[in-house]
Structure formats: structure tokens, C-alpha cells
């Protein structure tokens, strides 16, 4: 696993985070990458690099990069700020449920591992892994609503495979409740390819 820093962020970005917390966050995330590698038999000779400085709010595979996951500073500032500590992160829980589905609390550690799995799946979708059917959407995907994004084929496939992989490393599946709700509520849109908005001229 290589750490890239393509955007050359200023040193004060690093000074604003607790390095022990950053190491903890990265190590949990990489566990997910490793779990996905093992499940899909994606050889370690194929590099997966993490780039600091992504503009996203959460870690995300950079579409078209063929091997780069962006890790945003805003995410690190939120969870690994100077006032954070590893013990607090180890006890922290996140609600991954929708308002309509009710609260669904998971540990921050499990969420990080699941995120590492999901972003690796997006990488494998991008390169056309034979066990994955979904293709990543083209330009304009980020203009879609959040609901359309989570309903899209590549996201539903990633969550479904994540829930298959998590038990292989001793973690309970976490996305079933969300996907049952989405499939029942939006049957015509669930699991369909994302259709980017067309720019009007």
C-alpha cells in the first residue's frame, strides 16, 4: 500500500491532525482493502494507492484512475483533529440508517473497514473484474441527487458485496436494512445504471 500526496498540501494541514489517529484510521481502512483483495483474488502486484487531499467528504475511489483512492483532509480533520484520541475513535459509532429506516449504529472501525472494501470494489468495477457486473458512471454522476447515487447499480453492487466480505473477517453485514428499504420503496430505480445529467447549452 502506497501513500501518495499528489496535491502537495501545506504542512499546516498535517499539523492540524493527530498523527496517532490518522494511523489508526488508515490502518482500519486498509484492512478493508486487504479483505476485498483476498475475496476477489486481486493480486498485490496491482497497486492501490491512497492520495491525501481529495475534495470529497469521505474516502472515495477516483474514477478512471485505475488504482487511486482519495482520502480527504476534511475527513481527517473531522475525526483525527488535534483534540482527538485513538481510544475515543475506537469507541465511536456512526448512524448509517436513513431517517425513513431508523437508526442503525455501527462502530467507526467497522465503517472504515467497510469503506475500504467498497472503494476497492469501485476500483475493480472500473477495471472490469469478471465477478462484478456494474460499470462506473461517466462525468455528471456527482450532479445526481444523493438518493439517485445510492440507488445506482454500481453502489448497490458494492454494498451487496461488502456485506458478503465483512463476515469473512469477523464483522456483521451492515447494509441489508438500507438495501431492503431502497429496493421495496424504489423498485423501478433500485440497482439501475446511473444516468448522468446532460448539460444543457
Which tags fit this structure?
single chain, 201 residues, alpha/beta, four-stranded mixed β-sheet, two-stranded antiparallel ribbon, globular
Structural commentary:
The protein is α/β, with parallel strands linked by helices and 201 residues long. The chain has one domain. Helices cover 44% and strands 9% of the residues. The strands form two sheets. It has a four-stranded mixed sheet. Strands 5-6 form a two-stranded antiparallel sheet. It is globular and about 45 Å long.
> What's the count of strands?
6
Could you tell me how far the N terminus lies from the C terminus, measured between alpha carbons in angstroms?
A: 43 Å
Please give the domain count. Answer: 1
Mean pLDDT, as a whole number? 88
- Globally, the shape reads globular
Rg from C-alpha positions?
Answer: 17 Å
Helix proportion: 40-55%
* Strand arrangement in the largest pleated sheet: 1-2-4-3
Structure class: alpha/beta
The profile of the biggest β sheet is: 4 strands, mixed
Q: Which stretches are low in confidence, meaning pLDDT under 50 for 5 or more residues running?
A: 5-11
- One letter per element, helices H and strands E, the order comes to EHHEEEHHEEHHHH
Query: Treating each run of at least 4 consecutive H or I residues as one helix, how many helices?
Result: 8
Query: Strand percentage, roughly?
Result: 5-15%
Amino acid at each position: 500500500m502506497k501513500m501518495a500526496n499528489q496535491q502537495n498540501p501545506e504542512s499546516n494541514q498535517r499539523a492540524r491532525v493527530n498523527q496517532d489517529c490518522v494511523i489508526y484510521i488508515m490502518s482500519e481502512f486498509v484492512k478493508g482493502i486487504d479483505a476485498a483483495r483476498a475475496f476477489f483474488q486481486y493480486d498485490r502486484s496491482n497497486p492501490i494507492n491512497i492520495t491525501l487531499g481529495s475534495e470529497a467528504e469521505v474516502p472515495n475511489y477516483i474514477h478512471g484512475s485505475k488504482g487511486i483512492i482519495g482520502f480527504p483532509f476534511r475527513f481527517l480533520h473531522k475525526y483525527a483533529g488535534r483534540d482527538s484520541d485513538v481510544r475515543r475513535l475506537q469507541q465511536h459509532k456512526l448512524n448509517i440508517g436513513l431517517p425513513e429506516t431508523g437508526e442503525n449504529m455501527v462502530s467507526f472501525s467497522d465503517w472504515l473497514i467497510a469503506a475500504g472494501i467498497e472503494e476497492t470494489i469501485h476500483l475493480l468495477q472500473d477495471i472490469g473484474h469478471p465477478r462484478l457486473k456494474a460499470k462506473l458512471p461517466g462525468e455528471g454522476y456527482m450532479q445526481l441527487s444523493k438518493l439517485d447515487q445510492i440507488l445506482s447499480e454500481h453502489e448497490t453492487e458494492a454494498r451487496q458485496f461488502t456485506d458478503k466480505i465483512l463476515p469473512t473477517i469477523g464483522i456483521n453485514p451492515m447494509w441489508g436494512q438500507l438495501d431492503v428499504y431502497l429496493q421495496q420503496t424504489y423498485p423501478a430505480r433500485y440497482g439501475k445504471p446511473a444516468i448522468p445529467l446532460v448539460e444543457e447549452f
